[in-house]
Amino acid sequence: MRVRDDGGVGEVTAPPQHLVFAYYITGHGFGHATRALEVVRHLVAAGHDVHVVTAAPEFVFTTEITSPCLHIRKVLLDCGAVQADALTVDRLASLEKYHQTAVVPREAILKTEVEWLNSIKADLVVSDVVPVACRAAADAGIRSVCVTNFSWDFIYAEYVVVAGHHHRSIVWQIAEDYSHCEFLLRLPGYCPMPAFRDVIDVPLVVRRLHRSRSEVRNELGIADDVKVVIFNFGGQPAGWELKKEWLPDGWLCLVCGASDTHELPPNFIKLAKDAYTPDLMAASDCMLGKIGYGTVSEALAYKLPFVFVRRDYFNEEPFLRNMLEHYQCGIEMIRRDLLTGHWKPYLLRAITLQPCYDGPINGGEVAAHILQDTAVGKKYISGKLSGARRLRDAIVLGYQLQRAPGRDVGIPDWYSLSEKETGVRPAHTSHDMNGNAESSFEDFEILHGDMQGLTDTMSFLKSLSGLAGNDPRSPEKQTRERAAASVLFDWEEEIYVARAPGRLDVMGGIADYSGSLVLQMPIREACHVAVQRSDPTKQKQWKHTQARQLANGGAVPVLQIVSFGSELSNRAPTFDMDLSDFMDGDKPISYDKAKEYFSLDPSQKWAAYVAGTIFVLMTELGVRFTDSMSILVSSSVPEGKGVSSSASVEVASMSAIAAAYGLNIAPRELALLCQKVENRVVGAPCGVMDQMTSACGEANKLLAMVCQPAEVKELVTIPTHIRFWGLDSGIRHSVGGTDYGSVRVGTYMGRKMIKCAASDILSESLSSCVPMQSGDPNPEEYEEHGVDLLKSEASMEYLCNLPPHRYEAVYAKDIPEVITGAAFLEKYGDHNDAVTQVDPKRPYCVKAPTRHPIYENFRVEAFKSLLTAAKTDEQLSALGELMYQCHYSYNACGLGSDGTDRLVNLVQEIQHRKTSRGGGPSLFGAKITGGGSGGSVCVIGKNCLRSSEEIFEIQRRYKAATGYLPIVFEGSSPGAGKFGYLKIRRRSA
């Protein structure tokens, strides 16, 4: 059934009998309560009893409905999406809180709700959109209906992908609960919700207006000609500091949700907590806030331009945003501009919009009419299938719909040519259906460098050629990131291109920061970065960048970055800043301030990997950038797979910038500078092997490097009979994660304990041996340890310099399994690691993280020696055994994962099974790589067809068990130093 386009169904009149509704409202945000309010109001007006089950404040309902037929029961039955702040959803915390709120007490909840529903003699259960309410209704023998624009199975589906399979049952249970629902009343701006088979579309549910624009303004003492913006973030931004100069001259700002103690400037007006927002919105000229159903629906209904700030990881947002933009009602503000007060260009542009929504807004009345009919027995739908049977669509189809190219939501709609631009070169090539130019890289003249036959570099130049022929004002649909990139460069001027690969950690891994020998292979997948420098007065600028310059009084050097591939991850694909933001007077700001700068907006934190290279060059080498800079980043190194996507971006970015500015930086020095980007600007406590491999590696060779701090020992040619593969577990890995960081802290704690123990033994030995004369009966103790050896261990800089036998003989027995941060700090003072901190409240594993690098260094040395041994199965078996030992040592440190363990176990099964073909195995070993806790495994095997077939078999078996098809990394390519750089310029027409 579909309601008529005009939404008309007539007044909601009372049926012959009195009805009782139980209306469950989710614990996420005010928007659900405010839209439910409008439906409840119509049901109560028709004479029915409505019992609202909610965690929302009572005033949301009681200020609008004063009737004995309204009953409010304060209960939290689901938590929605847990927000780390007003704009960021914490995905793992959301799943964990839902588990505690709705899964652990599920049986008790169902029992309580069934008893309560029977006690009030409910005729119908309505859910917006609490999953367990549908199941409780079914258990009580009562029909149920959902009213929503999204469902929690779809919202949580992506969270599960990130958090790991241990939360997957949550999504299945939610979908199964929804399957008990009679049908769905679907609101505009809806997400894919395949868990509901039967759907009825209803108009926007919007709260009615009580007072006119002039009445509201008169009450607030605001003249009709004063421009007003309403600041509405759902009551969460009470602690944000607001400043007078943030508003255009003569403007006023109405602030929702400010605390009683929050002091506001004179051009900001604090609204009461229970202020009726629709009236205030209709009296304003625009709104600044975050996207939610309530704000979007009321902005559309009252034709209020909406300046919105993106929320991270709330999957409802793209669909509501599309509706806003379709009706010319929305403009995105970059979060950094929100927090730093650069509001004026956005507000001034907002009041030029002409919102054009003209659809019905009586969804509350329509929904109430349908609910009443359903409660008296009217059948709107037929039979239904199980929600769990349709969950495949919710997770796969819905996720793909959201993430498909062209669906990205990170680019403000004004990323087009600024007013000073006269146009771009007309397209001179044909376009395919996706808007990609069918032109060749030969459109560019290579003034310096060589592509070295790398097909990915050819493809990158082809993509640049396609951008050069793109007119952003063309009606032809294109992704927003391509629209932004198409006006990034002056195609008649020189562009510098660098390339840096990811890496496969064959041996060494987390022992790098302890000084180990490591063996790393640069992989085929790589990051390309294109850089162009330009005079600040001539740089092509996005409109908001130009507006900021005008507001600041003139042209200053500006950095503009576009990163391709943002639709595959929840991040904004563009970043811009004034390069003067990196300066404090005539000196660069501190690393801590730079880190804080990039942390302001989580959706743009990725820019720290790129812009951070500029800051490190300024800080470490004293480079001053007086030109503007435009940067395009395009990486085929997948993120979160443990193959060092971050290092490839850093190395490619710094290499391209160095080329553009004529900086002669050796690959080793460049890698060390890039490590500073990750450690000091991004804040990830990684070692240096990733950057060294990306910068110094060579194709089909293992980079053998001693990380003390970064000495390339040699490039070891991979024997022709040996092959390495990477297999992605599908579990996201991050060296910025707490597991990696806590293991690193534990390792440094162990080093400090060993150094202190060596000092104590040395002191005791010296004190007991100073008076020793010839013939002393006890010289053994002095000789056993040796003064020189103890001195070196007491001053040891790198834990890997301690041989395993010394560790076992002297120190192992005194290293605790676990110690709290407070106990360690009290006894030892500090762990002496510049990039991590000890949390006094946290317990740290020490023994396993200390033991791992000591033995790993020995394993890597043995592995390197074995590579040149005779080509036998025994050689491969020994190499594989060393990899297995490394893998289980990672697990002992707490850096394993179910996915990587499963892949290693599959390699072992295939290695040890008997085959009808005869002969020995083709695969010989595997280990988790890099920082652990997910990511990829490295597999060693014979370089033969059979081993490749077995790798594909592992792929299939892993997918059958987990639903995830692993990416296979195979092949190698040169590092950034070997590639050099390209200097290109577009050929004349």
UniProtKB/TrEMBL annotation:
InterPro entries per the UniProt record, alphabetical: Galk_glycosyltransferase (IPR012369), GalKase_N (IPR019539), GHMP_kinase_C_sf (IPR036554), GHMP_kinase_L-arabinokinase (IPR053205), GHMP_kinase_N_dom (IPR006204), Ribosomal_Su5_D2-typ_SF (IPR020568), Ribsml_uS5_D2-typ_fold_subgr (IPR014721)
Domain of life: Eukaryota
Domain GHMP kinase N-terminal: residue ranges: 609-697
Pfam families named in the record: GalKase_gal_bdg (PF10509), GHMP_kinases_N (PF00288)
Gene Ontology terms: biological process: carbohydrate metabolic process
Keywords recorded for this protein, A-Z: ATP-binding, Nucleotide-binding
MF (Gene Ontology): ATP binding
Occurrences of domain Galactokinase N-terminal (ranges): 493-533
Record PANTHER family: GALACTOKINASE, SLR1395 PROTEIN
Protein name (Swiss-Prot/TrEMBL): L-arabinokinase
